[in-house]
Amino acid sequence: MKTSENCINRNYLNYVKSVCPKTKEKRSLFRAFLVGGIICSIGQAIRLIFESLLGLAGDELAAYVSMVMIFLGAFLTGLGVYDRIGKFAGGGSIVPITGFANSVVSPAMEFKTEGYVYGVASKMFIIAGPIIVFGVASSVLVGILYFIGYRIF
Q1: What is the reported pLDDT for 74?
Q2: How far apart are alpha carbons 54 and 50 in whole angstroms?
Q3: In a domain, 42, yes or no
Q4: Is residue 44 in a domain?
């Protein structure tokens, strides 16, 4: 019985290997690294421009750069460009800020035919919603622990 199971398993694995497309891991890793690096370089360039031209620093600078990167991610998703970048780069396109903007805008665009309230507004946070909820919940927990620790020590 064991030999027939092993034979079936081997036959199945050989079938899967013959049907599945071959992945080119080195090329995929290179593309992900390249595109992720380009996105981060764009963010750094925006930061340097805001520092030199607007004289921003600290939290204001970080806020403005974050807003521009979120806008760019959402705008490129709306134009359909970010999806093509994602197909080319794979995981390299999931840089935190632009990837988050993409995850908010993509479902909203997909369901826009259902209207603004039941489509766009209700589906906008279908992917990003749990991230926001867990982010807020964990920040509240950290705040409580910080408050308790500050009172005790």
Answers
A1: 86
A2: 5
A3: yes
A4: yes
